[in-house]
Structures
1.
Amino acid sequence: MNYYGDYHTHTHYSDGVSKVWENVLSAIDKGLKELAITDHGFNNPKYGALTRETFYLQREEIEEARKKAQGKIQIYQGVEADIIGLDGTIDVNQDELEEMQILIMGYHSFSEAKSKKDWFKIFPSAYLSFLIKPSKATIRRNTRTFINAIKKYPIDILAHINHLFKVDCVEVAKACADYGTYIELNAKHLNLSFQTLYEMSLTGAEFIASSDAHHFSRIAEFSKLEEFMKKAGFDKTKLVNYNKKPEFPRRKIRLKEF
Ligand SMILES: [Zn+2]
Ligand SMILES: [Zn+2]
C-alpha cells in the first residue's frame, strides 16, 4: 500500500465521464482502501454540477457500489463546493453539510455568486489571472475570502490552492492548520512554487494528494505529482493519505457517526 485513498474524483454526475462503479473498480485495482466521489456542487452550471436531486440519485448508485464491492473498499459521497461570497459563503447549506461525508471547497470559474457585488469581486479577476496579474489588494481580498470559508464551514479539503484564484498561500495554510482543513496537492492543478510549498509546510498545515480524476483511469495517478514533490524536497510520507488512513478532523465535527 502506498496511497490509502483518493478523496477527490468526479463522475458523469458533473463534468467527469465515468460511472460511480467504474471509479470504484479502478480504485480497487490500484490498491486503494478508500475512495471519495466528489462531483461539483450545487451552484455551478458550467460544470454540469450535481443538483440537490441528483445528489440523492448518486447516493443510490454509491449504495449499490458498496454492496458490489463487498467490503474491498470504503466509498464516501462528497461534494466539491464553490466559493460564492466574499464572506466565505459556499454553495452548500447547513443541512446539506450533514449529508456529505467529504467536503471539498475551491474556486471554480463563474459559479452563481451570492450577490452581484460578490460575483464582480470574486470571478473576473480570477478568470483573467493568467493574463493580468492580480493586484495585491485582490490577493488580500481573496485570502480573506478563503479564510472566512475555512472558519465558517467544516471543510475537509481545500482544493487546488492558488489555481486562478490567487491567495497568500501561507496565510491560508495557517488557517488550515488552525482549523484542521487539509491542503490538497492536486495532480492536475498545482500552482505552487517550491518555496511557497516549503513555507506552507512550516505553518503546521497538513497536505493530502488528490487526483481530481474526471475519468476512472486517472484515479490515484500521482506520477507527475510525485516528481513535483521530489523536486520540491517535499517528503511524501508527510501526506495524510500516504501509507495511512487520513483522519479528517473536521468531518468528525460535521458528522456524528465519524
Ligand atoms: Zn476543482
Ligand atoms: Zn475536482
Note: Residues 8, 10, 80, 212 surround zinc ion (ligand 2) (CB under 6 Å).
2.
Amino acid sequence: MDNFFMPTHVLFGFDAILKNKTLFHNLGSKAFIVTGRHSAVKCGALEDVLNAISEVNTEYVVFNEVTENPTLSTVEKGSDIFKKEKCDFIIAIGGGSPIDAAKAIAILAANNISASDIFNPSLYDKAIPLVAVPTTSGTGTEATHYSVITNDKTNTKAGFGSPLIFPKYSFCDPKYTITLNPLVTRDTGIDALSHLLEGVYSVRRNSLLMPLIYRGVDYIVENLDTAVMDPTNLEARALLMQASLWGGIVIAHTSTTLQHSIGYPVTTEFGISHGLANGIFLKPIMDLYHYYIENEIEEIFDNLGFSRQDFYLWLNRQSLSSPRLKITEEFIREKAPEVLASRNMALNPCPITLADIEKLYRGVMR
Ligand SMILES: [Fe+2]
C-alpha cells in the first residue's frame, strides 16, 4: 500500500518569511533561533527572520554555535539555554547542520531525558515546535523527520527519526542560496540528487513519489551547472531548492540506502562534505543496483529523455573527487563492517555483503 504523509506546512517562494510572518503567532511569544556562525547572516535569512518576528512582537534569543557535523554537546548546550530563557519555539536557519541540531534540541528540551537518549525515540513523546529556514538546496531536512548528530563522546555520527521533529513550518526562499559558493552548490545539489535516486532504490519505493523523483532529478541535472557558474541565477536556484525539498519528502518516506551509509565514514574520516561523499559513490552504486532493479532505474531516464550513459557523462563533468580521499586497506577493514551494520541496509534493493562494500571502497581508491 502506497502512502504519502507530509505534516510540514511548506511556504515556498521569494520573501516567504516576511509574507507569512503572522504564522509565528501560532507558536508562542519567544523564539529560540538556532544557526551557524556566519551563513545565516551572510545570506540574509537571519535578518528576514528578525524583521518578521519583531513585526509580530515576538521575543527571541539567538544560539549561533552550531558547526558542521553538529555534536551532542552543542545540542545539550542549546537545550539548556532554551529552557533557561523560557522560549516557546525554535527557528532553525541554515543548511543541514543547524536544522538537524535544532531538531535534536526540540526533543531534548521538551523531555526529561539525557542527551544521548535522543537516538532512542521510544524514550520520548513530545517536541518543541520547530520552524525550518533552509539556506542550502541539498539536505531536504526541512521536510523530514530525521536528524543526524555526532556523538562527540563516542566520535560516531548517528541519526534518529521521529514524526515529532517534522518542522511545523518550512520557509523555503531560494534567494538565500545565491551566496553559496560553487563547491557547496555542487555538493548540496548532489546530496539532493542522492535522496531522489534513493527513492527509486529503496525497497520502500512508492509510486506516489515518482513524479517528484523524476522531476527533481531533471531539475538538478538541468540546473546545477547553471547555479555553479552563475550563482545569482534565481530561476536555477529556485528549481534546485524545489528538487531538494522533494528529495526530503522522498526520503521521509523511503529512507536512505547503502548510497548514504557508505559515504558517512568518508565524511567523518577525511572531512569530505556529505554531498561529495555521496557523489563519489553515485555511479558505482547505480551500477550495482542496476543489475537488480534495471526497470526501475531505466524508468528514471525514460522519463527524463536522456540515457544512463548520458547521466554518467554529466556526473563525470561534476568532478566528484577530492585529494583528501585517502582510502586504505586499514580504513576498509575498520569501516566496511560498520557500514554493513547500519540500519538502512535492509532497504537496499538487493542483498549487500561485506565484500560488496569493500569492493566499492577499493573502486574509489586513488
Ligand atoms: Fe543526504
Note: The mean pLDDT is 96.
3.
Amino acid sequence: MDDQERELRRSVVEACREMATAGINQGTSGNISVRVADGMLLTPSGLPYDQMTPEDIVFMDWNGEWKASEGNVPSTEWRFHLDILRAKPEVSAVVHAHPTYCTILAILQRPIPAIHYMIAAAGGNDVPCAPYAQYGTAELSALAVAALADRRACLLAHHGMIATGVSLRKAMWLAIEVETLARQYHGCLQIGTPPLLPNDEIDSILKRWGQYGLRERSPQAGLAA
Ligand SMILES: [Zn+2]
C-alpha cells in the first residue's frame, strides 16, 4: 500500500464518521467508495464507523474481485458503487446513505423538484428517484446508474440516496445538500404545494456555475473546491 492509498483509506474512514455527525446516516447503513487506478476502495459491510480503521477498507477491482483484511467483506451495495464508477469516468467518489428526509421522499417514490436553486448542484432540475429493487442486486444497480445518467445524485425508492462527486469532499458535500433539499421539500409539503423554479432558471444557474465553478455558492470552500 503506497502513501496515496493510505491517505485515501483514511479519508474514507473520516467521511464515514462525518456522515454520522452530519446526521445523514442511520447506523452502519451508509457506505462510501473512491476510485483508484485499478478499481475502488470501499467501506466494509456492517462495521461500526467508530471501530473502522484505514486497513478495514476493502479494495475491489473493475471485475468485482476484492481484497480485504481478515474478517472484512465489501459493503453489500458494492455493485452500484462499482457500476457507477465504471459508467461515469468523471466521478471519483460515491456516497450512499439512508438520510431520514431523503428516505421519506423515496418511500413516497417522489423525486425532489426544483423548489430551490441549489437543486442544480445535483446537475439538473430535480433529484430523480430510481424505482425500487432489492438492496445489493444487479437490478438495483442498473436502476441507480440509469437515474444518475445526467445527474450527480438520486433517491432510491423505499431505500435511501446516492450522491457522487469528482472528489470525496464534493460527494459528501452533495449528500448533505440533497438531504437539506429533501428536508426543505418535506417542510413545504406540510403547508401546501410549493411552486417550482422554471427549467430555464435552473439552466441559467448551471451555466453560471459552469463558468465560475462551485466555489461561489458554498461557504465551505474546502468542500466545494
Ligand atoms: Zn442502502
Note: Residues 168-191 form the longest helix (24 residues).
4.
Amino acid sequence: MTDLYQIADTSGILSPGLLFYADLIRQNLARAVELVGDPSRLCLHVKTHKCPEIVKLERSYGITKHKCATIAEAEMVAQCGAADALISYPIVGPNVQRLVALVKAYPATRFAALVDHPLSAQMLSDAMSKAGLVLDVLMDVDVGHHRTGIAPGPEAIALYEQMNRLSGLRTVGLHVYDGHNNQANFVERETETLKQFNPALKLRETLSVKGLPTPRLIAGGTPTFPIYARMTIPGLECSPGTLVLHDHGYGAKFADLKTFTPAALLLTRVISRPTPTRVTFDLGNKAVASDPGPGKRLILLDVPAHEQVLQNEEHLGIETPHASQFKPGDEVLAIPTHVCPTVALHRYAYVIEAGRLVGTWAITGRDRVLSV
Ligand SMILES: Cc1ncc(COP(=O)(O)O)c(C=O)c1O
C-alpha cells in the first residue's frame, strides 16, 4: 500500500496536508470511462474534488458534463469552460437571482437545475423569463431516498407538464439519486436499485407517450454506478462523484468497487508522545471529515496495532504498545473514510506525480461564493 503512495521528498509538504495522487486520479477516471463505455454517458459530480484542475483532467478523458451541489461549484465548472453544469440541488431564496446571474455571466456553459415542486418551477420560470433567459430543468424523481424529489405518479406527470408549459424553462428530462442504495452485497444492491428505478423508467415512458421531451436521464452515485453503467437506455447518464478520488469508506464496504483506488490522502506528522503508549499526530477534525464518528474517520497507513482514542480540532491521539517507535516529526499517511467533506477542509491539495511533489491545486469550489 505504501509503495503506491511513496513520496520522494516531503519537505515541501506542510502538515496536515491534503495530497492528490494525479496518476491515481487519472486511473480512476479511465476506469469510470471504461465501465460506462462512452464519456458522454458520464455527468461526474464535482462535489468530491471541488477542484478546477480535476475538471480539466476530466475533459482530457472526454468528460464534459458535471454535476454540482452548489452555485459556487457550478461557477467553478463554468470558469473551466465546461460545456455542461447541472446544479442538483433545490434553488430557493436569493439563490434564484444568483442562478440568473450565473447563467448570464457564463454564456458558454449550458446550465441545468432540478425541480421537484410546482412552486420552484414557477419561481425559476419567473426569474428566467424576466431576465430573458431559458434554463434547462430536470424533474428530480424520488425513488426511495426521501431527501428531495417527487415520487413517480400523477403529481409528477402534472409537474412535468407544468414545467414544460412555463416560459423561461426548457424541460430536458429526469434526475434520480438513490444514495440509500448502499447495500454492501452487490446482488442485493442491484436488485433493490433496479426495482426502484423501474417506476422512474415507466414515468419517463408515460411522459414521452404524452409527447413531452425527456432526452436526459441522470442517475446514481458511486455505489450504483456499476449498475447504471451497464444499462443501454438511451439518454442515461451516470453521476458518481466519490470514485474520482475514492476513499476508505467506499473501498472497505464495496468489494465490487475495488477497481477504484483512493487517490486523496492526508500527510500527518507526530507532534507529541505524551505517555509511553500514546502518540499524537497533527490530524484533527479540522483536517479530516468528522463524518463518520470518532475513531473511524481515517486509517493510518503502516502504523502497527493501535486504536484512535482522541481527536480534537488539531490533534489525533492513538494508543499503541508500539509508541516508542515514534518520535516528533515522523510522517504517516492516512486515507480519509469520507473524502468529499475532507477535501472541503483544505484550501489546496499537494499534487503527487510519479512519487514526487509537483505542485498544488486549489480547492476553489470549497467556497460558498465565488463571484456571483
Ligand atoms: C445528487 C447526488 N448525485 C450524485 C452523488 C454522488 O454520489 P457518490 O458520492 O456516491 O459518488 C451525490 C452524493 O452525495 C448526490 O447527492
Note: The pocket of pyridoxal-5'-phosphate is lined by residues 45, 67, 88, 177, 179, 221-223, 239-242 (CB under 6 Å).
